[in-house]
Write a structure and sequence with these properties.
Elements (H helix, E strand, L loop, with lengths): L1 H15 L2 H21 L2 E4 L4 E4 L2 E2 L4 H12 L4 E2 H8 L5 H19 L5 E4 L2 E4 L3 E3 H14 L1 H19 L4 H4 L5 H24 L3 H14 L5 H12 L3 H19 L5 H7 L7
Parallel strand pairs: 1-7
Antiparallel strand pairs: 1-2, 2-3, 4-6, 5-6
Helix pairs in contact: 1-2, 3-5, 4-5, 6-7, 6-9, 7-9, 9-10, 9-11, 10-11, 11-12, 11-13
Length: 278
């Protein structure tokens, strides 16, 4: 896809430190994104487990949604045998392939496009009119992690993405064994987006927001070192040493209890100057 080509070109341009070239490629990305959003009719929302066509959700059955979700996960398409095995593991191979054909027909009919699912040379794939946003959002997050300009440009999008991610997927999607790697991708994306926004809030002196986001990270992974560091820094910069020390002690107790490990030297150094710790 052209979007992927532009991403690779941007990475190369950034290594050359050619600011003009970087700017032109970013402008091209923005133009392509605007054109794509205006012209694509079908979007697969893996965050919420739904398909959007013409700006409206398409009422799909679980079986129909399972097929289009599986094809979204297999970005380059998949053989009918693989799809049949994943989606209908309890069925006989021939019966599973017949079910696959039936559901592909139903999805095309419900969405109103024969191109939404293509079949060629024994493989099923989504048509060019279908947008799967997860890979695009992952690329946005990667850029925001290492480029302040990209972060400033994507800040509102990241906030919206985080909100959608934290709503979670429907339980029936979590029951699909083949969906587990994608669910982990979504959980990793949630952590990355939350971390970026927390660090951004800290840099911009929005200390309470940084503390809130750090707390969300801790809820997901109590052993995560990034979360207490952000919280401790935010408390100290806000002038609340007592809260910083309490956070340090909480994390130290968790490490001791869970993995019998001491707190990292970096965290200890952060609160070493606190009068309460002398």
């Amino acid at each position: 896809m052209l979007e992927h080509v532009l991403q690779d070109a941007l990475a190369i341009a950034e290594e050359t430190s050619d600011d003009n070239l970087v700017r032109h490629i970013r402008d091209a990305q923005l133009s392509l994104r605007s054109w794509t959003e205006a012209n694509l009719r079908i979007r697969v929302d893996l965050f919420a487990g739904r398909v959007i066509a013409g700006g409206l959700p398409v009422p799909l059955t679980k079986g129909e949604l399972a097929l289009i979700t599986a094809l979204s996960v297999h970005e380059r398409g998949a053989s009918r045998e693989l799809l049949a095995e994943e989606l209908y593991p309890a069925a006989e191979p021939r019966s599973a392939i017949n079910s696959l054909k039936v559901y592909a027909h139903r999805v095309r009919r419900r969405i109103g496009s024969a191109d939404v699912i293509r079949f060629r040379d024994g493989r099923y794939a989504l048509g060019n009119s279908v947008d799967v946003e997860l890979p695009r959002l992952e690329a946005t997050v990667r850029r925001a992690q290492f480029d302040d300009d990209a972060l400033a440009e994507a800040r509102e999008q990241l906030e919206s993405t985080r909100h959608r991610l934290t709503l979670g997927r429907p339980q029936f999607m979590l029951d699909w064994e083949w969906f587990e790697p994608t669910e982990q991708r979504l959980l990793d994306l949630t952590r990355d987006v939350t971390t970026i926004l927390a660090q951004d809030a800290l840099r911009n002196e929005r200390y309470q927001r940084a503390i809130e986001l750090a707390g969300d990270l801790t809820l997901e992974d109590p052993l995560d070192e990034v979360a207490p560091e952000i919280a401790i820094r935010a408390f100290l910069l806000a002038g609340n040493r007592a809260a910083a020390i309490l956070e340090y002690r909480r994390y130290s107790s968790t490490l001791k209890r869970e993995i019998d490990a001491p707190p990292p030297d970096g965290l200890t150094a952060l609160i070493r100057g606190s009068p309460s710790e002398r």
